[in-house]
Specification:
Strand content of chain B: 5-15%
Function (chain A): Catalyzes the specific phosphorylation of arginine residues in proteins.
Helix content of chain A: 40-55%
Order of helices and strands of chain A: HHEHEHHEEEHEEEHHEEHHHHHH
Radius of gyration of chain B: 27 Å
Oligomer: heterodimer
Shape of chain B: elongated
Keywords (chain B): Coiled coil
Distance between the termini of chain A: 32 Å
InterPro entries (chain B): UVR_dom (IPR001943), UVR_dom_sf (IPR036876), YacH (IPR025542)
Organism (chain B): Fictibacillus fluitans
Protein name (chain B): UvrB/UvrC motif-containing protein
Helix content of chain B: 40-55%
Structural class of chain B: mainly alpha
Structural class of chain A: alpha+beta
Radius of gyration of chain A: 21 Å
Chain lengths: 355, 178
């Protein structure tokens, strides 16, 4: 296993497994923020302190008892090229913050890329578990096990009153951020989403685009996560999010049904047009690609398009981002060149399915 | 459309910022975006820390101490990392875990604001360094419910709870005795 392996494949092995409710929930993620006692938080730490933190993690990793997650590879961010970093961001294995701002950042990845532990990000440790489909509880369980494993080896900054201490007061307490990535084309198409998002916000949950804070939703993919980390147990936080996601799944399914009954031919027209664009275009921008991929994926879910695997959306969404395209071309590309390569890749991928 | 920064290359990135209801549109090229540090998706965002520090500055208790004319006596600083309360209020981030203790008296209103009125951790306790805490918490909650039973004159339940407390305390002593 090497860096090559992490950046050459668009699809992380965990994504290939089909999870529950995967027609709507693309993935579930749990993140735990943890800090080590006695060292300043990464953004205020000296080089020596930061290196000590990384060394401690190397030592912890040297121990050969692994749980359900397998062996870790530790990558130092300063040894990665900008393109490689970008690819890891596009796969959601590291955060933009770690890639861009962390001075002594590193990341621990397991073989199927379902676990990523960022070191010296905003906090000393960010334990992240990714699962396909709607599996928040499973992800929380695994994150908890990893947390216990690490706690055996390093001293956490923990306070009886305030819980796990974090660099930013918005993460203190449980340090838990639970999130799901949802594909909600029917709620967008029927304009219900603009009513739903404010309602979700009132419940202490946040709705964002796929790259986290402040990003716009592309291809009708939304990330929903908890905001409050203090004063609630981990189980309650996950349960509250689960409750809302379950309702969203129902609403999206109902909206899909209504569309299919009331606007069948219009919907099919839209789906097949998008399919035509993906199968035939020679130049395509990422925004258009994302929208067409969303339509085609809806077509697959509704059985309108047959013989194409569902994972095409997840795969092409990642593969057609600037970092991956350049990784694939093995050179830096300008936006026009990228749009051409993107169109080519999508065409080839669709043809592969048809064959 | 040309990039509004360099006016040379075509604008390929288009985004809209809405700050306090004021809408600003940006049309820039990849090159200028990169220079502005927008090379990575999602990185050029109004950060939570900026928002938080805005909230903290709005706090009259803090803006009072922030005025330059005030004497130095009220400067609260963390002895470990050197972070002052003013700095913390400005950037919205702690410098080290020790800061929590140093700024403790001022944290409740901030935490309430960010965490829906909560100030106290109710979640997981680390197994190794927190051993003992779990039992302590259980004892506390049992004692609380016993008081409640007594107030409600539900003496049978109160007695049951008392027995549970005794059992737990006995176990604790035995563990210590070993």
């Amino acid at each position: 296993m090497s860096l090559e392996h992490f950046i050459s494949e668009a699809i992380s092995p965990w994504m290939k497994k089909e999870g529950p409710d995967s027609d709507i929930v693309l993935s579930s993620r749990i993140r735990l923020a943890r800090n080590l006692e006695n060292y300043n938080f990464p953004d205020f730490a000296s080089r020596e302190e930061s290196e000590t933190v990384i060394r401690k993690l190397h030592e912890a990793n040297g121990d050969q008892e692994y749980g359900n997650w397998g062996k870790f590879e530790i990558l130092s961010l300063d040894q990665l090229k900008p393109l490689a970093k970008r690819v890891l961001v596009e796969k959601h294995l590291i955060s933009p913050h770690l890639a861009e701002q962390s001075k002594y950042g590193a990341v621990m990845l397991n073989a199927d890329e379902s676990v990523s532990i960022m070191i010296n990000e905003e906090d000393h440790l960010r334990i992240q578990c990714l699962f396909a489909g709607f599996q928040l509880k499973e992800a929380l369980k695994l994150a908890g096990e990893l947390d216990d494993w690490l706690e055996e080896k390093v001293d956490y900054a923990f306070d009886e009153e305030r819980g796990y201490l974090t660099s930013c007061p918005t993460n203190v307490g449980t340090g838990l951020r639970a999130s799901v990535m949802m594909h909600l084309p029917a709620l967008v198409l029927t304009k219900q989403i603009s009513r739903i998002i404010p309602a979700i916000n009132q419940l202490g949950l946040v709705v964002r685009g796929i790259y986290g804070e402040g990003t716009e939703a592309q291809g009708n993919v939304f990330q929903i996560s908890n905001q409050i980390t203090l004063g609630k147990s981990e189980e309650d936080i996950v349960e509250d999010l689960r409750g809302v996601v379950l309702q969203l799944i129902q609403q999206e399914r109902a909206a899909r049904n209504n569309l299919q009954q009331g606007l069948k031919i219009q919907l099919e027209d839209r789906i097949f047009r998008s399919y035509g664009v993906l199968a035939n275009s020679r130049i395509i921008q990422s925004k258009e690609a994302a929208q067409c991929l969303s339509d085609v994926r809806l077509g697959i879910d509704l059985g309108v398009i047959q013989g194409i695997s569902r994972s095409i959306l997840n795969e092409l969404m990642i593969l057609t981002q600037p970092g991956f395209l350049q990784q694939y071309a093995n050179e830096m590309l300008n936006p026009d060149e990228r749009d051409i390569l993107r169109a080519t890749l999508i065409r080839e991928r669709v043809e592969l399915e048809e064959a | 459309m040309f990039c509004q920064e360099c006016h040379e290359r075509p604008a390929t990135l288009h985004f809209t910022k809405i700050v306090n209801g004021q809408k600003t549109e940006f049309h820039i090229c990849e090159h200028c975006a990169k220079e502005k540090g927008e090379f990575l998706p999602g990185s050029n965002t109004f950060s939570i820390h900026q928002l938080l520090s805005g909230l903290l500055y709005g706090d009259p208790a803090i803006s009072g101490t922030a005025s330059p004319g005030l004497s130095q006596q009220s400067v609260l600083a963390c002895p470990k990392c050197g972070m002052t309360y003013q700095q913390f209020a400005k950037i919205g981030r702690f410098g080290c875990s020790h800061c929590y203790e140093v700024f403790d008296s001022k944290l409740d209103p901030i935490l309430k604001r960010v965490h829906g009125g909560n100030t106290k951790h109710e979640g997981k306790i680390p197994k190794r360094i927190g051993s003992g805490l779990q039992e302590k918490r259980e004892l506390e909650s049992l004692k609380k419910s016993m008081q409640q039973y007594i107030l409600n004159e539900e003496f049978e339940k109160a007695a049951e709870t008392r027995d549970k407390i005794r059992l737990l305390e006995k176990q604790k002593h035995q563990e210590k005795g070993e």
